[in-house]
Amino acid sequence: xxxxxxxxxxxxxxxxxxxxxxxxxxxxxxxxxxxxxxxxxxxxxxxxxxxxxxxxxxxxxxxxxxxxxxxxxxxxxxxxxxxxxxxxxxxxxxxxxxxxxxxxxxxxxxxxxxxxxxxxxxxxxxxxxxxxxxxxxxxxxxxxxxxxxxxxxxxxxxxx
Length: 160
Fold this sequence. Notes:
With 160 residues, this protein is mostly helical.
């Protein structure tokens, strides 16, 4: 909730499609994932001790990132792409009255999102099998978010 509310408030005040706002938003999301990765790699959070309460230390950082991610997708106007849960994507695809029509942009986005989440899960599962695998998965995810944040600087400012 905190990630969603802070991200939505900052986005509203600074403009949802402003380059600097998007850059900062995605950059902070990436940093929160990287903090969790650092906590794992420094053994503050034990990776192979699931019964330890210390595994809970990273949850606030990841929860903040997921909340900010959902708020970002809403601010960008892509409500048809749930970015964290596949159940609603599947439901929206199955209940789409225009599912089998040739041109259906929302269906294409939903199907693309489901495919990308599936591929991300497969890659994450494969990487997690390595030594320090979960930390590696978080490093990859965090770096992708940071790079996306920096990529926003390459786009031209929207003319309003």
